[in-house]
Specification:
about 160 residues; mainly alpha; 6 helices; about 75% helix; about 0% strand
């Protein structure tokens, strides 16, 4: 039982760090380059431990992100649930992909997350339609993915999270 609770704390700590990185202030010119930390951490844990981290975790992570960002409740939650669903359906293939292939899929998943959030913000009147610069975050997330993957894998193996 202690090992299972230990594993939960490691997962929660990684999400906590992702939330901290998600709210760190950036200069206005660099806001579009901010990696999407919470969706990337969610993708990793869903891929690594699909029997423990899934749709419910994605929903909770999204609601917490909504609260932190001050957006409408459920906006990020819905987008992260969809990202988690796609990741769950592909998790066996994702494990077999090379780092470059995983980065490509992370690019697509983060892009999907960003587009869904942007569309929902437009639909709710939080923002107006603008250029597609917000998708640059998907590129920076894909570039960072191999390093984040290795870091989280090392953390998972060090604390024997399974």
């Amino acid at each position: 039982m202690q090992q299972r609770s230990h594993a939960t704390w490691v997962i929660l700590l990684s999400f906590f760090m992702a939330y901290l990185l998600a709210i760190v202030p950036f200069p206005a010119w660099a806001m579009h380059y901010r990696p999407e930390w919470v969706p990337m951490v969610l993708i990793y844990w869903v891929m690594a431990l699909p029997h423990r981290v899934g749709i419910f975790w994605a929903w909770v992570a999204g609601v917490v992100l909504d609260i932190l960002e001050g957006s409408y409740l459920g906006l990020n939650a819905m987008a992260l649930v969809i990202v988690a669903y796609v990741t769950l359906s592909l998790h066996l293939r994702l494990r077999m992909f090379s780092s470059l292939q995983q980065s490509g899929l992370v690019f697509a998943l983060i892009g999907l997350n960003l587009v869904l959030c942007h569309w929902l913000q437009i639909a709710t009147g939080q923002t107006v339609a603008s250029n597609m610069l917000y998708l640059i975050a998907a590129l920076t997330s894909a570039v960072i993915w191999p390093s984040l993957f290795q870091l989280l894998r090392q953390l998972r193996r060090s604390f024997d999270v399974h």
